[in-house]
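Replying to the earlier thread about multi-chain prediction with a worked example.

Input:
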Amino acid sequence: MVKKMYVLNKTVAMVGMMGAGKTAVGTALARLLKVPFLDSDEEIVKAAHRPIAEIFERDGEAFFRDREYEVIGRLLRGAPCVLSTGGGAFLSERNREQIGRAGISVWLRAAPDLLWQRVRHKTTRPLLRTANPRQTLMDLCRTREPFYAMADLVVDSAAEYSVEDMAVRVVSALKTRPDVLQEG
Ligand SMILES: Nc1ncnc2c1ncn2[C@@H]1O[C@H](COP(=O)(O)OP(=O)(O)OP(=O)(O)O)[C@@H](O)[C@H]1O
Ligand SMILES: O=C(O)C1=C[C@@H](O)[C@@H](O)[C@H](O)C1
Ligand SMILES: [Mg+2]
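Result:
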């Protein structure tokens, strides 16, 4: 089978909850589209020389959110790419605005139970360091959904879809927009 070639006109910003697959699916998507993959969390860690949990602890969440806004702005000014945003990034109006101006947002939607299965074994997510992390995740899902729902496109996750399946589904969603992907 001949592989399709695409030209990406706008940066694709992956949004959604922790464990939605922004990093994993975003990486696979970038490979399919042959564009760079960038992750705002990773860029913040690189610039601060400290893990996210430590930034939250030492400088507070507000400081982290300011750095996140700056990093997303910088990455959006670069060539079109796949940009995985942090789980809380799309909650802020200033991030939704800057993403809307320069890119297209894709919400990777997943049921809370599926998210929990994916994140339960990791302790690197500062917002889940609570007495009942499962409940915290459920509560975050409920309060955040209206914000994620403002994304330009929604792609549903399911336990039976692999990371690759999800990347192909995102490509199909992007093709519904006239101004994002050109088939070459
Ligand atoms: N469709 C999928 N199929 C199988 N595993 C998946 C899928 N999507 C994500 N995962 C796995 O779930 C875990 C969490 O995914 P990932 O780190 O990509 O989430 P994230 O949205 O980037 O979360 P965060 O906001 O915390 O960075 C990873 O181990 C990843 O490989
Ligand atoms: O959901 C969130 O608010 C977060 C998700 C991660 O991607 C990191 O950006 C950080 O742990 C905060
Ligand atoms: Mg991630």
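The mean pLDDT is 94.

Feel free to reuse this layout for your own posts.
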